[in-house]
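Fill in residues.
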């Protein structure tokens, strides 16, 4: 298969003498080229916003967000998924990353795994994919067989599908219902899509997961009010959030957090609405988890 026509496989004229540059010149060039990433993403913002709304709707219907990819793209999906439980207090099943070649591919390249067009269907069947789920196929080239197979299977099942690639007219763009295509241009190191393309993919994934969590009540103001108190740093952050929102001192914030079973939203409601823990949880349930609405209910 000829991939030379892909933008991500073209040679970058700005780095033609890469091996002759000083170290400082190298990093200046890297930095200059990275600046093109945000501009490429800017052109895709309406599509990213549409994708966020689709994902948020799925969450509201008890659907899941499933990332599929191979190599760097797959690892980025797994990374984004793994950060959602501690940040937003969701279960580990709500956002999942599936990488071609399985868990071993996270730590050691299993490049041949991406060529199996049927493998993603098997992997998606293992997690019991349903029509309520959203499947996001990630592939810088836009032609990875593993991702093509996964998106095709998801479409047949009735899922909403989203493609993220960095080449125009990519095969996965024609398969998915929403195609996000930040074309970042040729890489400094020819064909190394872990660079600008990988950075673009990571930024888009940040937007998708964070945006969907905002839309489903996991954020109040700009605070992660569903954060899990799973380590010392996050316990302190939780206390700080309670202090910021309610104006109480740390000692009171600590007491509220204990009384609220380590649930930040409930602690805030207990203080500001003057209610007990059971009432606070009920107020949240009545307002679908949105703290802002619960505070005025």
């Amino acid at each position: 298969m000829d991939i030379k026509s892909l933008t991500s496989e073209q040679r970058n004229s700005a780095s033609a003498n890469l091996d002759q540059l000083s170290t400082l010149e190298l990093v200046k060039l890297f930095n200059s080229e990275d600046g093109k990433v945000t501009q490429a993403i800017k052109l895709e913002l309406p599509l990213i916003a549409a994708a966020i709304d689709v994902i948020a709707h799925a969450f509201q219907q008890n659907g899941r967000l499933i990332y599929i990819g191979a190599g760097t793209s797959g690892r980025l999906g797994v990374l984004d998924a793994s950060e959602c439980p501690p940040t937003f207090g969701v279960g580990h099943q709500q956002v999942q990353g599936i990488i071609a070649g399985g868990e071993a591919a996270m730590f050691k390249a299993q490049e041949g795994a991406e060529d199996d067009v049927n493998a993603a269907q098997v992997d998606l069947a293992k997690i019991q994919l349903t029509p309520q789920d959203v499947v996001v196929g990630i592939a810088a080239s836009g032609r990875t067989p593993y991702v093509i197979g996964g998106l095709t299977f998801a479409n047949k099942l009735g899922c909403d599908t989203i493609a993220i690639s960095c080449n125009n007219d990519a095969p996965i763009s024609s398969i998915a219902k929403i195609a996000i295509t930040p074309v970042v241009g040729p890489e400094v190191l020819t064909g190394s899509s872990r660079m600008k393309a990988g950075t673009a993919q990571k930024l888009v994934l940040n937007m998708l997961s964070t945006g969907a969590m905002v839309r489903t009540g996991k954020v109040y103001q700009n605070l992660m009010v569903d954060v899990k108190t799973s380590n010392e740093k996050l316990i302190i952050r939780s206390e700080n959030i309670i202090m910021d929102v309610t104006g109480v001192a740390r000692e009171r914030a600590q007491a509220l957090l204990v009384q609220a079973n380590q649930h930040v939203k409930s602690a805030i409601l207990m203080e500001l609405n003057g209610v007990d823990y059971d009432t606070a949880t009920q107020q949240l349930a009545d307002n679908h988890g949105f703290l802002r609405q619960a505070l005025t209910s």
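The two ends are 60 Å apart (CA to CA).
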